[in-house]
Amino acid sequence: APVFISPLSDAVIQEGSKFTFICQVTGYPLPIVTWYKAGLSIQNNPDYHTAFENGLCSLTIEETFAEDSARYTCRAVNPAGETETTALLSVKETEPEEQLIAPSFTKLLQPSTAREGSPFQFECKVEGNPLPTVQWFKNSDCIDNSPDYIITYNNGEAILKFEKVFLEDKAEYTCKASNQCGTAQSTANLIVTPLKPTEAPAFVAPLSNVMARAGQKIKLECEVSGLPLPTLTWSHNGKPVKETRELKLQFEDNKATLIIYE
């Protein structure tokens, strides 16, 4: 009766590779060999190439796919009897290679006009793999670390936010996106419309007379209102007052202060 002197062995291979099952059988008269996949004959299947020479049996798969994973059987039969050998083939799927993609903008910055004193934000959207990093520029100067703006970046959506727009915010703004494959940028101009005066300047709390001795610190304060907020000028005997080491000028929250240290 036939005997497999070298049986099939289990195998694990990578998808796309060539693979051959080999076994060796003896018997007299020489057995007839048939191959099976999951119990079904594959003897005449063009996806598999079988050979049998001098007792050496082979089954070759030129290019393996995940669906080739199965239990394979080689059966040998002659008038004296039959025998078989079985082995499991496991084909591991190839992980798709991650494709690297250079940055590109799916939503560009738009030229905009904002009213002085109002909130405003620039928005754009970028994609790429890996996800690009972004930088913001005002007239070619990087403003990423400026306290004048609120910058957010989430899933490719980049926002540059102004809590309140000032006349000096009129400029060209650029968002630059970068990853290891390259860079891309989007640029737009911001125009700031000055506020029309709707409230004339008025002193809510005017200056008060102050008496001081020579060498003593003096502090003068007043509070002003108006829309837009007025600009202030201090004068002494009709001449403009300028800041020095001994004299400081402040204007904050509608309150103007002049300090003479001695």
Describe this structure in words.
The chain has 262 residues and is mostly beta strands. It folds into three domains: 90 residues, Immunoglobulins (Immunoglobulin-like); 93 residues, Sandwich (Immunoglobulin-like); 62 residues, Immunoglobulins (Immunoglobulin-like, Sandwich). 0% of the residues lie in helices and 57% in strands. It is built from no helices and 24 strands. Strands 2-9-8-4-5 form a five-stranded mixed β-sheet, with no helix packed on it. The chain has a five-stranded mixed β-sheet with strand order 11-18-17-13-14, with no helix packed on it. Strands 1-3-7-6 form a four-stranded antiparallel β-sheet, with no helix packed on it. It is rod-shaped. The N and C termini lie far apart (121 Å). The model has no long low-confidence stretch (mean pLDDT 93). Keywords: Kinase, Transferase. This is Myosin light chain kinase, smooth muscle.
